[in-house]
């Protein structure tokens, strides 16, 4: 399960699985139009993840769909503005692409980085930590200490195991108190937290955009370290090609900018436990 990315040097356009955007000069009007097209592409990726419900390993598949919708699509317009001579075709696939047989230059995979024969660069380190609507940080029932989390519904991803581990790491006795909805997509979990429906656990990369924009807050420092993260992969033989280097370096710069902003906001903290 990964994002497959093709490059070419032509007029500015970005192709998402629904079809190819038309070629236009990069004017302010075109940039505004691109933002609308990217919003539509994000909605399409959400529908793709919703429609795919059976016949595969959900734990492996959801991270890439959500990465595409929550992280990448929000930023593709920045890349087009900075590199108008490079086209991108981005596809969220249900399989690991075969670089020898498929017309793919580069991919983003979720895992531990151990893919023989491929050049793999980690996008960023990640943690799993509690997030909530900023509304839950004020008022009589506000979140002031980790134990206060039990006053609210806990929003779970697939199982209740992660919350059990997080509460143990925070020194909170959650036995018999694990409650709240269990959802099967990280984007649903994050959106429920944004809407004030409870407290969720989110990974750094997927929560970054909403933390930076102020739609989410991180109330406590406690976090779980994650061994599986996002990796930028390509064949070793093509790793030094200019178009590959350009896009890889842009991805890494975007991730580094996220970490810098999160540190400035106080939303990137160092108290971690192993996964």
Number of DSSP strand runs:
13
Distance between the termini: 22 Å
Strand content: 15-25%
Question: What is the helix content?
Answer: 25-40%
Biggest sheet features: 7 strands, mixed
CATH homologous superfamily classification of the largest domain = Periplasmic binding protein-like II
Using the CA coordinates, give the radius of gyration: 19 Å
Tell me the count of domains: 2
Q: What is the CATH first-level class name of the largest domain?
A: Alpha Beta
Secondary-structure element series = EEEHHHEEEEEHEHEHEEHE
If classified by CATH, what would the architecture of the largest domain be?
A: 3-Layer(aba) Sandwich
Structural class: alpha/beta
Query: In oligomeric terms, what are we looking at?
Result: single chain
Shape: elongated
Round the mean pLDDT to the nearest integer and report it. 78
Query: Within the largest sheet, what's the order of strands?
Result: 3-2-4-1-5-12-6
From the 3D structure, determine the CATH topology of the largest domain: D-Maltodextrin-Binding Protein, domain 2
